[in-house]
Automatic annotation (TrEMBL):
Positions of transmembrane segments: 247-266, 333-356, 368-384, 437-454, 466-486, 540-557, 564-581, 609-627, 639-658
CDD domains: DPG_synthase (cd04188)
Compartment(s): Endoplasmic reticulum membrane
Name of the protein in question: dolichyl-phosphate beta-glucosyltransferase
Top-level taxon: Bacteria
Length: 819
């Protein structure tokens, strides 16, 4: 029956139906019989059948009932379950609304369990087959059940975390809230259950998941393709839930990253970042060799293409297998220069977006404040410095996710699940960069210790779930990384530690000065005097930002979060001074707290100045808190005065685009494959002088030649001496040291029989097939020395001088001579 009725009833039952002529009759009998027998509990009731354009006698069956409490609402055509429910719920009058499927897979008697949960103050009580206490009397086909479980898992991850079973068709709602939620829905298919539950979550209306009895009924309308359709609807739902402000923030971060790398981004194969020193050559080689290992199914943890014959322990060289392996197809198709450029540009934007997500979720709600805070976290001066050369310190998008997961453990809601996820995240971060994870853990420890002192009640409640979750995370992470870490610390070409000297800490002045790449206040001479090199300007926040952070801390000191962030930033800055530091403008030297950690395992290889990078996200969050407070200020003077102070603190450290120059062309000897006749199986091609951390252009020649030949020497971390101390580059030999000295000084020793004998031993050690001299500084002296060492002049071919070291018929003419 149809008609307009305004009288409120206690309970409305909505049954969506499409061609349910055979099953609907028994269902209506069961529902109306049960409600009639229990009117003392459920009160006045009605049943609304929402016909979704049926082509059989479904509608006629309802009309034939001739019962004013059973009403029919019919759509003009078949649109889907979502449309039917929207029509049906809109037509209800009940103070409570039950939605149940036409097959009554969950018996109507289970209503009492849902009603009890609703009466306890919940806005909705939904039947569940996945919570303890649920009973499944008759199961679906195994394939359908697996698809359902997979769908539910995905739904829990992307739509309504915490609800285990969204698709059980037996749900009881508060009437007014149900009508509001269904009216706001837009999905027409099976995904409407998720959409409505998301509406309840966003409105902060509590939802109880209640175990029910459930039996699979034959004649289900859910086909295999419907699972894919639900996923498509979830994607639409997820896309609609994204706030425009969040999209704008992501676009801003991407534009900022592209602007920073603009000098190289649009032509990466022919542009070079000179402030990377030799690191761009090194990292392109890392990406190239990883892709080559993947393509040929070789061990991704080792190669002898560089450092021949000893080789390179790639796991001990931060090749970022977590990205260089997935990007192998890009590297193979477009070259390592493009792959590295995309990796660093998109990775920097992703890092900023991850900090933005964490700040919005955990620190402030104001999107504009979060945008500024995340920009500082990702584009602070030390981050820009490392953006020249170190993708492992640029791609930090996992760190905010790890921080959030650790905070979830403290809440103690789902310790086992969060512990497993944290373990997987930590394992992946190890394959992105171990040192950033160590630094992040140090920062998290500083924050946790301070917050625990300030909020002892929170710490008391959190330490047990946190400890349990960390134990689970370790149990998950260790089996994944155990073998790679064993290879790193005990495998071929492994080393014990890399010593950086006693001057790798920051000067106190470095924390207050401006970095070289600061757009408005950069001072290259001062920055270089206060840092190891342009890639290690690890502080340089500028005195205006330091003063602003101090003012924010004093103004908001009553907040525990501010205290913890301020102590974290100050503690990291103090640690970054190193094991000892000199008071500026004096000769007074004090021991630093880093001295307690400097000789400990793992910490002994850390460049301690990098600890100041921990300050970037801490300062970003303090800034976000201050901006959110300013946004709510009632006084215009306070608002504009505060914004002016923020602008004056940030403008001096706005980064300028990274310097980029044209790359030196690769000689035709390498690009045209002219090297091939000179290098036989098991031999190497020896550049003069050998590549080392100060001059590693030979790595670029090798990648241009698609890694067709092996190189002695190189730029990597490897062992030296009986104690296997870590050094940069291959272990030196007499001939390699001498050739390097000639290159840099122009001064050559007298080549006698001893030098020639030593050169023969070194050539044999390197399995040298040929020596190659590319035009460079002092190349005339180098050419003379090599001629004397080999005993015959080289040949000019393909833009290089070549000395073929094979025994050959003197009458045989070089195939490329005169080229």
């Amino acid at each position: 029956m149809s008609g307009t009725v305004t009288r409120v009833v206690d309970l409305s039952v909505v049954i969506p139906a499409y061609n349910e002529e055979r099953r609907l009759g028994p269902t209506l009998d069961a529902v109306t019989g049960y409600l009639s027998d229990n009117e003392s509990r459920f009160g006045e009731w009605e049943v609304v059948v929402a016909d979704d354009g049926s082509t059989d006698g479904t509608g006629d069956l309802v009309v034939a009932r001739d019962d004013p409490r059973i009403r029919l609402v019919a759509g003009d055509r078949n649109r889907g379950k979502g449309n039917a429910l929207r029509l049906g719920v809109a037509a209800t009058r009940g103070s409570r609304v039950l939605v149940t499927d036409a097959d009554l897979a969950a018996p109507i008697e289970e209503l009492q369990q849902l009603d009890k949960a609703l009466s306890e103050g919940n806005a909705a009580a939904i039947g569940s087959r996945s919570v303890p206490g649920a009973t499944i009397l008759s199961r679906q086909h195994r394939v359908r059940e697996l698809l359902g479980r997979a769908g539910n898992l995905l739904i829990r991850r992307v739509a309504v975390p915490g609800i285990r079973d969204t698709q059980c068709g037996f749900k009881l709602f508060d009437g007014d809230r149900a009508r509001a939620a269904f009216a706001a829905s837009r999905l027409n298919g099976w995904g409407i259950d998720v959409e409505v539950l998301r509406h309840f979550r966003r409105a902060d209306w509590s939802v109880a998941e209640v175990p029910v009895r459930w039996s699979h009924q034959s004649g289900s309308k859910v086909g295999p393709l419907d699972y894919a359709w639900v996923l498509a609807e979830l994607a639409r739902l997820r896309a609609r839930s994204v706030r425009p402000a969040d999209v704008l923030a992501a676009v801003c971060f991407l534009l900022m990253a592209v602007a920073l790398y603009s000098g190289r981004f649009f032509d990466p194969a022919h542009r070079y970042l000179p402030d990377s020193l030799q690191d761009q050559n090194q990292w392109e080689w890392f990406f190239a060799v990883t892709a080559d290992n993947v393509a040929h199914l070789r061990n991704p943890l080792f190669t002898d293409l560089q450092g021949f014959p000893g080789g390179v322990n790639l796991m001990a060289n931060t090749v970022m297998l977590g990205l260089s392996v997935p990007l192998a197809p890009v590297t193979l198709a477009f070259g390592p220069a493009l792959a590295l450029s995309l990796c660093m540009t998109l990775g920097l934007a992703a890092t900023a977006a991850a900090w933005y997500w964490l700040i919005v979720k955990r620190v402030v709600r104001h999107r504009g404040a979060a945008l500024v805070g995340a920009s500082l976290a990702a584009f602070a001066p030390p981050m820009v410095s490392h953006a020249n050369a170190h993708p492992n310190f640029v791609l930090l998008f996992m760190i905010p996710l790890i921080v959030d997961r650790a905070l979830r453990l403290c809440e103690g809601a789902r310790v086992r699940r969060d512990g497993v996820v944290l373990g997987l995240m930590a394992a992946y971060q190890i394959f992105l960069g171990e040192e950033p994870l160590l630094l992040a853990s140090t920062g998290m420890a500083l924050f946790a210790a301070t917050y625990a002192l300030v909020r002892r009640d929170v710490a008391k409640a959190a330490w047990r779930p946190l400890a349990k979750g960390l134990a689970i995370a370790g149990a998950v992470c260790l089996p994944i990384v155990a073998y790679p870490l064993y290879w790193q610390f005990a495998g071929p070409q492994s080393y014990h530690s890399v010593l950086h000297g006693d001057n790798a800490g920051n000067s106190p002045l470095a924390l207050l000065s401006f970095a070289e790449r600061s757009l408005f206040a950069g001072d290259a001479d001062r920055a270089n005097a206060l840092s190891l090199n342009p890639t290690e300007q690890n502080a340089f926040y500028g005195w205006p930002l330091v003063l602003l952070a101090l003012a924010i801390t004093v103004r908001l000191w009553e907040r525990p979060l501010v205290k913890a962030l301020a102590v974290t930033a100050a503690g990291a800055a103090l640690l970054s001074l190193g094991p000892k530091f000199r008071v500026p403008l004096t000769d007074t030297v004090y021991p630093g707290p880093w001295a307690l950690l400097a000789d400990k395992p793992l910490f002994e290889s850390v460049i301690e100045g990098r600890l100041a990078m921990i300050c970037a996200p801490a300062l970003g969050m303090l800034l976000a808190l201050a901006l959110e407070r300013l946004a709510s200020a009632r006084s215009v003077t306070t608002l504009y005065g505060g914004l002016l102070a923020v602008a004056l603190a940030l403008l001096p450290i706005v980064p300028a685009p990274l310097k980029a120059v044209d790359r030196a062309p690769v000689p035709r000897f390498f690009t045209a494959g002219m090297w091939k006749p000179y290098v036989h199986e098991g031999e190497s091609l020896v550049p003069v002088p050998l590549p080392d951390p100060g001059a590693a252009e030979a790595l670029h020649w090798q990648t241009t030649a698609r890694l067709g030949f092996k190189l002695p020497g190189g730029y990597f971390n490897g062992p030296y001496g009986p104690d296997r101390a870590g050094i940069y580059g291959a272990a030196p030999r007499y001939t390699s040291d001498m050739l390097r000295d000639v290159r840099y000084t122009g001064s050559a020793p007298t080549i006698d029989a001893n030098w020639r004998a030593q050169a023969r031993r070194d050539f044999a050690y390197w399995h040298a097939g040929a020596l190659v001299l590319v035009p460079q500084d002092n190349d005339d002296r180098l050419r003379k020395v090599v001629t004397e060492l080999v005993g015959r002049p080289g040949k000019w071919t393909g833009g290089v001088w070549v000395w073929d070291l094979h025994e050959r018929d003197p009458a045989r003419r070089d195939p490329h001579e005169g080229s």
